[in-house]
C-alpha cells in the first residue's frame, strides 16, 4: 500500500465495516503526508498532543486555500448560519462555549443532566415496550435514532413533530464533513448551503417564539440568559442552536448502535450487562474507545509550523486527526483490538480532548448507558440478523445505517 492510497482507502465505503486494519498500517508512520494533500496523524500521543496544542486551529479560514478542498466548509461566507463554536478558536470559541454551557451544565446548572435521568429512562422503557409482539427490529430506526432525537427536542424545546424536516437538513449538513475525494464538490456545496439556509430560517423562527414566550427549555435559556459574557447575538444563537440540535443526536445514534452491535458480537459481555446494569458505565467508555462514533477530525490546521514525530507540518496545511486509530494504538492501550469493559486507565479519544472536547459528552454517556442496559435486560435471546450490517456512507461519523436484530420476546419493564 503506497502512502497516496491511505486517504482513499479510509474513505472507501468498502472498508467502512472494518477500517481498523487500515489504521494499524497507518500507525507505522505516525504523521504521514498523503498524496492527496492532508497530513494524517494516527497515533495516540501525537493526536492527544495536537488536540491540546493552541497552535492547531479548528477555524477553516486559517487553511491554505489549496489545502481546503476535500471537506465542504463554507460557514465563513454563509451569512445565514455562521460558524458554530466548534469551528472557532479562542477567544471567540471560549466565549460562545461558556455561554452555551451556562444553561446546560456545571458550574451554573450542575444537575441538569442528572435530573433528566428519570425522563430518559421513561423514554427508553417506552421504546422497548413498543417491541412487544415482534420478533425482530431495526435497532437504528426503532430505537437508536428516536431515543436521542426525542431527548434533544425536549431539552432544546424543538417540536418533536418537526423531526422529518430537521432530519433531512441534518443528513445533508453532516454529509459535508465526509471527506470523499471523488464527490462532486460543487453539487455538495449547493446542497449543504440550501440545507443550512433552511435550518437557519427554522431556528430563527423558534428563537423569535422564545423571545415572545419563553419556556423551561434550553433554547429559552439561551435567548434570555444573561451570564458573565452577556447574551448571544441572534446569529450566534442560530448557529449554536443548530449545532446542539444536530450534534445532540447524530453521534449518540452511532454510539448506541455501535455499542449494541459490539455486545451482540460479545455475548459473554452482554450476559454480564444483563445480570449487572452497573457494568454499563465502564462498558460505554470501552465502546467509545473500541468503536467510536466519531472516527476522525478533518481539516485542522497549524497557525505556525509544527514539528511532531519527526515531521514538520507547515502553517496552513490540512491536518486530519484519526481518533479511532489513536484509540487502537498499542503504545497507549494494551491488547487494543480486544473489547474489554474492565479496561483500566481508559482515557480514550472517543469524545476528542482539549478545548473542543465534546460539549454533550455527559448526556451522550447517560443516554448510551441507559439504552444498552435496558436492551440487555429486556430482550430475550437477542441476535444479529446481518453481520456486518449495512453502514452509513459517512467515514467521519461511522455507524450502521440499519442493525437488524432478532429476539424471542421482551421481558417486562420495571415498575414505575
Q: If you had to describe this structure to a student in words, what would you say it looks like?
A:
With 416 residues, the chain is of the alpha+beta class. It has a single domain (3-408), classed as Cytochrome P450 (Cytochrome p450). Helix content is 44%, strand content 8%. It contains 15 helices and 12 strands. The protein has a 5-stranded mixed β-sheet with strand order 1-2-8-5-3, covered by helices on one side. Strand 1 (31-33) and strand 2 (39-41) form a beta hairpin. The radius of gyration is 21 Å and the shape is globular. Pfam families: p450. Belongs to the cytochrome P450 family. This is Cytochrome P450 family protein. Keywords: Heme, Iron, Metal-binding, Monooxygenase, Oxidoreductase.
Roughly how much helix do the residues carry, as a percent range?
40-55%
CATH level 4 superfamily: Cytochrome P450
Radius of gyration: 21 Å
Name of the CATH class: Mainly Alpha
The spatial strand order of the largest sheet comes to 1-2-8-5-3
Count the domains: 1
Summarize the helix and strand pattern as letters: HHEEHEHHEHHHHHHHHEEEEHHEEEE
The profile of the biggest β sheet is: 5 strands, mixed
Question: Secondary structure elements and their pairing?
Answer:
Layout lengths: L5 H6 L8 H7 L4 E3 L5 E3 L2 H8 L4 E2 L34 H10 L15 H13 L6 E3 H6 L1 H11 L6 H13 L9 H28 L5 H7 L9 H32 L1 H9 L4 H11 L6 E6 L3 E3 L2 E3 L5 E3 L1 H4 L34 H18 E2 L2 E2 L19 E3 L2 E2 L6
Parallel strand pairs: 2-8
Antiparallel strand pairs: 1-2, 3-5, 4-11, 5-8, 6-7, 9-12, 10-11
Helix pairs in contact: 5-7, 5-15, 7-11, 8-9, 9-10, 9-11, 11-15, 12-15, 13-15
Amino acid at each position: 500500500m503506497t502512502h497516496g492510497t491511505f486517504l482513499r482507502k479510509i474513505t472507501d465505503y468498502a472498508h467502512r465495516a472494518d477500517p481498523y486494519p487500515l489504521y494499524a498500517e497507518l500507525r507505522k508512520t505516525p504523521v504521514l503526508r498523503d498524496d492527496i494533500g492532508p497530513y494524517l496523524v494516527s497515533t495516540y500521543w501525537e493526536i492527544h498532543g495536537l488536540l491540546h496544542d493552541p497552535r492547531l486551529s479548528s477555524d477553516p479560514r486559517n487553511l491554505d486555500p489549496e489545502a481546503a478542498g476535500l471537506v465542504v466548509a463554507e460557514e465563513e461566507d454563509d451569512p445565514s448560519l455562521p460558524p458554530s463554536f466548534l469551528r472557532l478558536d479562542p477567544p471567540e470559541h471560549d466565549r460562545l462555549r461558556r455561554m452555551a454551557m451556562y444553561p446546560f451544565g456545571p458550574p451554573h446548572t450542575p444537575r441538569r443532566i442528572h435530573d433528566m435521568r428519570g425522563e430518559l429512562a421513561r423514554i427508553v422503557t417506552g421504546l422497548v415496550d413498543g417491541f412487544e409482539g415482534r420478533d425482530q427490529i431495526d435497532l437504528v430506526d426503532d430505537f437508536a435514532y428516536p431515543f436521542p432525537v426525542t431527548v434533544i427536542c425536549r431539552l432544546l424545546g424543538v417540536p418533536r413533530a418537526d423531526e422529518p424536516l430537521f432530519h433531512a437538513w441534518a443528513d445533508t449538513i453532516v454529509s459535508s464533513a465526509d471527506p470523499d475525494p471523488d464527490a462532486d464538490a460543487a453539487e455538495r456545496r449547493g446542497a449543504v448551503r440550501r440545507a443550512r439556509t433552511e435550518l437557519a430560517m427554522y431556528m430563527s423562527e423558534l428563537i423569535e417564539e422564545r423571545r415572545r414566550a419563553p419556556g423551561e427549555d434550553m433554547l429559552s435559556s439561551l435567548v434570555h440568559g444573561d451570564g458573565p459574557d452577556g447574551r448571544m447575538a441572534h446569529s450566534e444563537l442560530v448557529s449554536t442552536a443548530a449545532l446542539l440540535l444536530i450534534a445532540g443526536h447524530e453521534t449518540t445514534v452511532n454510539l448506541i448502535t455501535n455499542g449494541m452491535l459490539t455486545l451482540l458480537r460479545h455475548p459473554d459481555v452482554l450476559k454480564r450487562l444483563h445480570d449487572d446494569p452497573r457494568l454499563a458505565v465502564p462498558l460505554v467508555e470501552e465502546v467509545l474507545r473500541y468503536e467510536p462514533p466519531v472516527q476522525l477530525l478533518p481539516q485542522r490546521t497549524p497557525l505556525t509550523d509544527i514539528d511532531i514525530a519527526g515531521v514538520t507540518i507547515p502553517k496552513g496545511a490540512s491536518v486530519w486527526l484519526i481518533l479511532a486509530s489513536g484509540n487502537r494504538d498499542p503504545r497507549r492501550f494494551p491488547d487494543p483490538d480486544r473489547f474489554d469493559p474492565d479496561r483500566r486507565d481508559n482515557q480514550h479519544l472517543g469524545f476528542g480532548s482539549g478545548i473542543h472536547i465534546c460539549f454533550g459528552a455527559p448526556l451522550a454517556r447517560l443516554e448510551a448507558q441507559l439504552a444498552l442496559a435496558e436492551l440487555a435486560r429486556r430482550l430475550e435471546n437477542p441476535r444479529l440478523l446481518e453481520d456486518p450490517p449495512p453502514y452509513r456512507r459517512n467515514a467521519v461519523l461511522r455507524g450502521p445505517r440499519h442493525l437488524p436484530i432478532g429476539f424471542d420476546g421482551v421481558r417486562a419493564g420495571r415498575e414505575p
